Amino acid sequence: MSVLNEVLAANEAYAADFGAKGELALPPARGFAILTCMDARLDPAKYAGLSEGDAHVIRNAGGRASDDAIRSLVISYKLLGTKEWFVIHHSNCGMEFFTDEVIRGLLANSLETAALGVEGFYDVGTGPGSAEAKYIDWLTISDQAQSVTEDVARIKAHPLVPAGIPVYGYIYDVVTGRLIEVPTATAAGKAA
Amino acid sequence: MSVLNEVLAANEAYAADFGAKGELALPPARGFAILTCMDARLDPAKYAGLSEGDAHVIRNAGGRASDDAIRSLVISYKLLGTKEWFVIHHSNCGMEFFTDEVIRGLLANSLETAALGVEGFYDVGTGPGSAEAKYIDWLTISDQAQSVTEDVARIKAHPLVPAGIPVYGYIYDVVTGRLIEVPTATAAGKAA
């Protein structure tokens, strides 16, 4: 079965037993938001105990406090009433295995999928590539605790984020499923 | 119990029964990615039938093909080998209830949470506000089928996205839990 048909069949089964979930309100019932990574191993609903309707979940490569993540968080607070936020990066993140220079070089050579060896990513195919990658900041990570701390600090300092909103910093351990506090981030993220 | 303690208690229970999930590989096992909205009512793992390790999930306000979502999708394909993508917006999305002008006006008046009345959002508190909101494109939505079609087209046309990657366009119905195809988006998103 194709991926598309698998997804549609799974959706059919979910919708068949949807019940009272169709009456949920738009604003998050538990009043918080999580910013985390797109990584396939992470299921924020499961690792943080969310039911449908509970909380906003924002995800991108790395779980970074990009301009777009901040756009989403500001909408979450200003229009939909969340009052606390989590920034959750994770161990063994793909964003640790390359730099802006590496991905720009790889994409200039070929758009096709690279392989990952002991020395990092390398291209197995050839062209066509694109020089466009140099106009993008890829938001790579060299140290998870540092990236969480930086992202919490960036969010707290943003002119559209009100003073006093707590922002908690955690790392999700993909081997154990546990959330590990990043003390430097949590200190910076505390309500004023 | 505070939100933070609730999340940590739920995580403790999840980790206690983590089992073989600790051995999952970094690249998505089922080779696809979903771009969807941060809305609390949406659980992509449930509505699309994902287990941990299966697929990348990218989420922002509206599920829009922002520059940051494209950063994430390019990493997903180039470095982590996904081969098919979904763009899934949804009915009753908060992004339909305001415009750039509205949110800029609200944030200039006050950063605090607004209320939603029959005529749209309005401020209940006062100051401090910020004029910074005018530097952000809020990516609001006036028509879901149109926003899905535009976003699929933007992704397909991006210079860092290889020709031939299928991008499927759907709307998730929050009342029924069903995925509804957007034919104009799917046609534009077909593999070359």
UniProtKB/TrEMBL annotation, chains A, B:
Catalytic activity: hydrogencarbonate + H(+) = CO2 + H2O
Domain of life, source organism: Bacteria
SUPFAM superfamilies cross-referenced by the UniProt entry: beta-carbonic anhydrase, cab (SSF53056)
One Pfam family in the UniProt entry: Pro_CA
Cofactor dependency: Zn(2+)
Enzyme Commission number: 4.2.1.1
InterPro entries linked to this entry: Carbonic_anhydrase, Carbonic_anhydrase_sf
Cofactor: binding details: Binds 1 zinc ion per subunit.
Keyword Lyase: yes
SMART domains referenced in this protein's UniProt entry, alphabetically: Pro_CA (SM00947)
Entry keyword set: Lyase, Metal-binding, Zinc
Coiled coil ranges: none
Residues binding Zn(2+), per UniProt: C37, D39, H90, C93
Lyase in keyword set: yes
PANTHER family per the UniProt record, alphabetical: CARBON DISULFIDE HYDROLASE (PTHR43175:SF3), CARBONIC ANHYDRASE (PTHR43175)
Protein name listed in UniProt: carbonic anhydrase
Organism the protein comes from: Aurantimicrobium photophilum
